Amino acid sequence: MINKIARIICMCCICSVLVSGFGVATAKAKMISTETSIAVAQHAESRNKVNAFIEREDVQKIMVGHGVDVEEAKMRVASLTDAEVAEIAAKLDTMPAGSGAVGVIVGAALLVFFVLLITDLLDLTDVFPFTK
Fold first, then answer.
1. CA within 13 Å, CB half, 92
2. Do residues 59 and 92 touch, judged by C-beta distance below 8 A?
3. Angle made by CA atoms 107, 111, 117, in degrees to the nearest 5
4. How far is residue 108's CA from residue 46's CA, in Å, rounded to a whole number?
5. 131: closest CA among 119, 111, 110, 121?
6. What does the H/E/C string look like for the chain?
């Protein structure tokens, strides 16, 4: 009796091992190039940059002011290809967004200073007392 039960348990174990072995897929790994790895990282970085830009509160206010739904814009950005996202991210880096204003203001101030200095040295104006 015990021999018959042991034989049934052994047959069940053998069947379960055989059936479970057929469903396992083999993994195929291969080397990827450095260029591929860098490209994937750059695509992810570009997508994060564009998404962070859209998440900014001031950008969302401007979008709403122009009648653009913020959620729809996010969905459209998510549907862009990697090349399109990379192009937009590159434009975000080069677009003047107020960061160049400091340079313009300093340049204008220096220009006014030098014009006044030269006119003071030529005795056309009397702005700076140290030019006498």
1. 17
2. no
3. 145
4. 34
5. 121
6. CHHHHHHHHHHHHHHHHHHHHHCCCCCCCCCCCHHHHHHHHHHHHHHHHHHHHHHCHHHHHHHHHCCCCHHHHHHHHHCCCHHHHHHHHHHHHHCCCCCCHHHHHHHHHHHHHHHHHHHHHCCCCCCCHHHC
* Tokens read off for 121: 């040295």
pTM above 0.90, yes or no: no
- Mean pLDDT per 10-residue interval, the chain, length 132 residues: 82 78 70 87 89 86 84 86 86 65 74 83 81 72
- Which amino acid makes up residue 56? R
Q: 58, exposed or middle or buried, with CB in 10 Å at 0-12, 13-18, 19+?
A: exposed
Core vs surface per residue 94-112: b (16+ CB within 10 A) or e:
eeeeeeeeeeeeeeeeeee
Whole-number Å distance between alpha carbons of 126 and 132: 9
Amino acid, res. 37 = S
Q: Quick count: other Cβ atoms within 10 Å of Cβ 88?
A: 16
